[in-house]
């Protein structure tokens, strides 16, 4: 039973490009959460999704960021027109039921904007 | 939303017991206390969760006094591989995910 799979592990983008981060939840988990971690800081909640629904996006920047969790396939976090300040580690977590603190996290995607 | 306060860093020698205390003075009746561990370049890993008194699993123990305004994560006989950041989280199991705030955690350094 594979854990939460995130890819790519490392992503380098030039300023102005788009970044697409993928997250496949654990088998049987239908709830996905995205977090961002800046260097030497804790994780900050971004968005909570269920299949085909965004449940809570209160932590998501209003512009350039979007997330989806389609009926088929992984959850995608998309960052358009990236800037240097977007450089961070982006972690995805999944749970089998709503808002269960026993989240399982992936290993993250490290985004570097040059 | 219950705010948590924990030491920024701690040092320990291998084989010692390590206790990390987290303060959460405004914890609500429905709030649980959850601890995560994060190694460099990895996502956080759930360690233990409790509501009151004492909880023990194969990894750690969690001590919660009667007033629940603090909690202590106890790691028995730490090894070098326990070097990590430990996060204390407080919130209701039925609360919204946006309240699952990690903070900066406690950086534990274990040496020989």
Question: Would you write up a description of this structure?
Answer:
The complex is a heterodimer of chains A (114) and B (112). With 114 residues, chain A is mostly beta strands. Chain A contains no helices and eleven strands. In chain A, the strands form two sheets. In chain A, strands 2, 4, 5, 6, 9, 10 and 11 form a seven-stranded mixed β-sheet that branches. Chain A has a four-stranded antiparallel β-sheet with strand order 1-3-8-7, with no helix packed on it. In chain A, strand 5 and strand 6 form a beta hairpin. Chain A starts with a strand and ends with a strand. By secondary structure, chain B is mainly β. Chain B has no helices and nine strands. In chain B, strand 6 and strand 7 form a beta hairpin. The model of chain B has no long low-confidence stretch (mean pLDDT 90). At the A-B interface, strand 5, strand 9 and strand 10 of A face strand 4 and strand 8 of B.
Order of SSEs of chain A: EEEEEEEEEEE
Strand content of chain A: over 45%
Total helix count of chain B?
0
Q: Compute the average pLDDT of chain A.
A: 91
Alpha-carbon distance between the two ends of chain B: 39 Å
What can be said about the biggest beta sheet of chain A?
Answer: 7 strands, mixed
Alpha carbon gap, first and last residue of chain A: 36 Å
Structural class of chain B: mainly beta
Short description:
By secondary structure, chain A is mainly beta.
What structural keywords apply?
heterodimer; A: 114 residues; mainly beta; seven-stranded mixed sheet; four-stranded antiparallel sheet; 11 strands; B: 112 residues; 9 strands; 0% helix; 48% strand; globular
